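Service request form, structural biology core

Requester: graduate student, group of Dr. S.
Request type: structure prediction, single chain
Budget code: on file
Notes: please return the result as structure tokens.

Sequence provided:
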Amino acid sequence: MQAVVEQVRNLLSARVTDTPFAARHPECVRFAAGGKMLRADLVLRLGRTLGRPQSFSVPLAAAVELIHAASLVHDDILDGATLRRGLPSMWRLMGTANAVLFGDMLFFLALRILAECDGELLKLLSGMGCRICEGEYLQELQVEKGSVSWEDYLKIVRLKTGALFAFAAASPVPPDRQDLRRELELAGYALGTAYQIADDFLDVRGGCAMTGKSSGQDRRLAGVSAVVVAEKCRLSPIQEVGKLLEEAQIRLRPWPEVHAVWSHYVEERIRSQISQCVSDL
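Core staff response, request fulfilled:
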């Protein structure tokens, strides 16, 4: 599987290298092709299980990672974060205006790749993209409000983080298996929400060397962080994460082969990262 992930990285590098940004700022290629590739890995594993050829799954995984990278570029501008993926944030590297344009470019590169791969998925992605933006907007509203319930927090992160995991999980499913696609989409929402809870704790507890990004960069958003909201609501983050991961597993039990691949992915790529963030809380 690692060799196929490298194919995704190579495709990302090639597409971003072919943009005007790369000639002046070659670091942007490393940024776009970097990261943990969690969403791409999910696409590739499910695609293989569902009989999708690599000619389909590799471009699809690249499109998902481009959307993720674009959202990070814009998030770093909003949050004033100075480090991402071990590199200066794109707005520090090329200036705020150019970083906005670079993030936009990444979005449109993703759409182009997806259109080449399977144009029918553009409708699904556009819906998920709207949900990501809705989640970010709700987060900004809650920053202004200053008081967030756990239910408010879950709604925000389900949209802003869960939506792309949902797309990564649902998009490899053939169109004639809508029941499975729907359950994988819902499982992806749960997985992404669990991952964001852990990431909020990592932002507080992890240093730059561990995370590759600015530590404590979400101070502006502290009131809508799992760290603050869970403590205020007297909730155990471990239990909340566990419930979300279990919800995803239950949804996929009617499809044993998919369930097995999902379980292996969660154990290998997700649970260990979550554990290091919330194990002692």
